[in-house]
Amino acid sequence: MRMIDGVGLEPDIYVENSPEGKYKVLEGIKKLRKVTKPSLNTESEDVLNAESILAVLGYDVGTPDNLMDEKTVRAVAQFQKDCGLYSYGVLDFATQQELNDKLDELILMKDRDSQYEKAVELLKN
């Protein structure tokens, strides 16, 4: 913190940058391959990656574990509903593409500098 006369400066506008740890979980997540349509009781790497993406997005899938259990089916159905897709809890190709798109957005967001963006916005106005 910078000091003037021994006193720290408080910002007029506080903008928090995203903590590094928030996006650390993205490192192990891969895009869904769109070769099968996992449903209840399916086990696969795509299920694990879908569960991981859903968890980062705030959906309750429990602990990502490769198994398309009832909790995962409910989370997928809610995600589908939220995205305007047919909501039935199966990881169909449209849902997998939507999850891949969300993963791409999350990866781009981790490199954003919210403080810099706000400063530019304020200087333009």
UniProtKB/TrEMBL annotation:
GO molecular function annotation: peptidase activity
Biological processes, Gene Ontology terms: proteolysis
Keywords recorded for this protein, A-Z: Hydrolase, Protease
Domain Peptidoglycan binding-like: 44-98
Gene3D superfamilies: PGBD-like superfamily/PGBD (1.10.101.10)
Family matches, as InterPro entries: Peptidoglycan-bd-like, PGBD-like_sf, PGBDSf
Protein name, UniProt field: Carboxyl-terminal protease
Organism ancestry: Bacteria, Bacillati, Bacillota, Clostridia, Eubacteriales
